[in-house]
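Researcher: I'd like a structural prediction for the single chain below. Treat it as a standalone chain; there are no partners to consider.
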Amino acid sequence: MLIIPCPYCGERPELEFSYGGQAHIDRPLAPSDLSDEEWNSYLYVRANPKGRHAERWRHIHGCARFFNAVRDTRTDHILATYKVGEPEPEIPA
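Model: Treating it as a single chain, here is the predicted structure.
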């Protein structure tokens, strides 16, 4: 089982969390001004890297807050977690 360190509550088992997709996706300021292709890209196109990936998570059975995590998709290892609004931390290779 994956242990995820919530930046608000500390380490908890994976079962307490819900995955929320790629982190740092900004909603368009004027969605109605976007073309169909731009709107489609915003809704559906996401990075799918092999390696480090910034993700959004929610601690649904704890503080109920959203936070970001950097996870290595090859090993499923959580490299860092941080609060929404904070920059992605520098993690040495």
